[in-house]
Amino acid sequence: MKKLIILACTALLAGCVTQKAAPDAAQPSPEQDRQSFVGYFQQRFPDVQLADYADGAYALPVNAAAREEWQTIEEFPPYELAIGEGESLWNTPFKNGKTYQDCFPYKLEDGIKQHYPQWSEERKMVLTLELALNECREANGEKPLGWKKGKIASLSAYVGYMSRGKVQNMPAPNSSGALAAYAAGRQHYYAKRGQLNMSCADCHVYNSGMRVRSEVLSPSLGHTTHFPVYRSKWGEMGTLHRRFGGCNEQVRAKAFKPQGAEYRNLEYFLAYMNNGMAINSPGARK
Amino acid sequence: MNRRSFLQNAFRTGALASLVTAGLALPKQVWAAWNQKAFKSKSYTDAVGELYGNNALADSDNIILKAPDIAENGAVVPITVESELPNIESISILVEANPSPLAAEFKLAPGMRGYASTRLKMGKTSNVHAVVKADGKLYKATKEVKVTIGGCGG
Amino acid sequence: MANQIRIRAKATGNVVEVKALINHPMDTGQAKDKSGNLIPEYFIQTVEAKVNGQTMMNAQWSVAVSKNPYLAFQYNGKKGDTVDLVCVDNKGETYEGSVKVR
């Protein structure tokens, strides 16, 4: 499986060097990518079911003791306070009388989070849930919220919580724009960066289940299903792009802007790798 | 996943109460003032002495101290103390290696079960002691909880 | 999220388990802010639990209780009981919550 990913990566990078955005016969399709991604993890962790990957590192057999401790905390998880704040934010109309629900074409009770991220053909960009929430505010005369924590994380936690169990069913990227965004996200994921010269894949694919000092590295499969996350380390909720920035910094690379093109494309790629999994938001982690 | 749907239902039926308005007029009882001396004691035996007037502790099999072997994060360590010793008046939890070992004390009226659960901060690997005052005597159970540094250097 | 307690209380047979999560920073007084100044201690010191108006538990906490503190206790009771929690921090602020046992 590792060979397939390296092959895919090489083909992709070759494509990038020649500035080609259109798919060609040599490159695997996103769906083929996804299948080999899932296949890789199934081979690496034969006892872990696909749905369990929503629990991240706690799904891995090596982490059985940590899983028990995590479940103890999940009995009354610290993110409940954020869900409460998110609920009251969601239900409070803007000064002009409109509400967040008015901005979304999906009803909260049917789940909203499973529809994001999504490719917008009209706007030629990836839309994420947090982006949609802040654009909703601005469209209704309210100031946008910070991207990484606080109210945006609480809102995202509430929407995510109300979408729990809903299966993500992203259409496969197939327009040239969508494929380019997907390719950019995938490139970020597999590219080495930072003073430590490591890629996301180094930790979360090739060394998933191994330890970095005392931490067990979580597998990428399932990552986007359980954000935003209450990290004990942060002592609060944080969004997916907050964590992307943190991870970039941990390999001593400069973080990109939250909700900028780089991270939205990365989110798009990662979410597609999880396609077919259920939303398990928000999460609690160490 | 039962746990998830339980949470979801609890939220949806509004069974969770949150803030109570001032109109509920709960009398604000002032019990014994916060036990400064016990909480500031630097050794766990001193803290027990300040709390209970003596520190003669007997080990007991009738105290179940549930704590992780290795804490996921020293800032949030889930600890549960359960005991069926008769006539329990108080359960306290002390983290020996913390700057001030006494973390929490629960005074229990008759009719309360011998059970207390919370989440504590631990500065480093330490013995955690659960002390139970039952029938006027003090009993304890101890467990070592390892606290590691995070691995990502972040 | 000021002054917020979430409480759940469930009866199984005659055992009622009460769990609560309180929104509070529980600052130890040891941590520093971005400018290097110590953030003063700010933590819940006392927790009182009443069942049907009667005080059943009084807890005292130190700064070693985690941020957004969690608490669970059990008593012999039944569905329909009213459980009230009153928490007071070192600044004298109170946090109150109430729930009916399910």
Provide an overview of this structure.
The complex is a heterotrimer of chains A (286), B (154) and C (102). Chain A has eleven helices and seven strands. Chain A has helices spanning 2-17, 30-44, 64-74, 80-91, 100-103, 129-139, 151-162, 176-190, 200-206, 240-250, 261-273, and strands spanning 118-120, 125-127, 211-212, 215-216, 229-231, 236-238, 283-285. With 286 residues, chain A is mainly α. In chain A, strand 5 (229-231) and strand 6 form a beta hairpin. The longest helix of chain A has 16 residues, at 2-17. The radius of gyration of chain A is 19 Å and the shape is globular. A three-stranded mixed β-sheet of chain A has the order 6-5-7. In chain A, 44% of the residues lie in helices and 7% in strands. In chain B, a hairpin with a 2-residue loop joins strand 8 (126-134) and strand 9 (137-147). Chain B is an alpha+beta fold. The two termini of chain B are 33 Å apart. In chain B, strands 1, 3, 5, 6, 8 and 9 form a six-stranded mixed β-sheet that branches. A three-stranded antiparallel β-sheet of chain B has the order 2-4-7, with no helix packed on it. Chain C has 102 residues and is mainly β. Chain C is built from no helices and seven strands. In chain C, the strands form two sheets. A four-stranded antiparallel β-sheet of chain C has the order 4-3-6-7, with no helix packed on it. In chain C, strands 1-2-5 form a three-stranded antiparallel β-sheet, with no helix packed on it. Chain C is elongated, with a radius of gyration of 15 Å. The chains are: A mainly alpha (286), B alpha+beta (154), C mainly beta (102). Chains in contact: A-B, A-C, B-C. At the B-C interface, strand 4, strand 6 and strand 7 of B face strand 1, strand 2, strand 3, strand 4 and strand 5 of C.
Mean pLDDT of chain C: 94
Low-confidence stretches of chain A: 7-23
Biggest pleated sheet of chain C: 4 strands, antiparallel
Largest interface: B-C, 43 and 50 residues
The helical percent of chain A reads: 40-55%
Give the strand tally of chain C: 7
> How are helices and strands ordered from N to C of chain C?
EEEEEEE
Radius of gyration of chain A: 19 Å
For the terminal residues of chain C, how far apart are their CA atoms?
25 Å
Overall structural class of chain C, as computed from helix and strand content, comes to mainly beta
Strand order of the largest sheet of chain C: 4-3-6-7
Helix fraction of chain C by DSSP (H/I, runs of at least 4): under 10%
Physical arrangement of strands within the biggest beta sheet of chain A: 6-5-7
Q: What letter string, H or E per element, gives the SSE order of chain A?
A: HHHHHEEHHHHEEEEHHE
Please give the oligomerization state of what you see.
Answer: heterotrimer
Report the sheet with the most strands of chain A, covering strand number, pairing sense and barrel closure. 3 strands, mixed
* Number of separate strands of chain A: 7
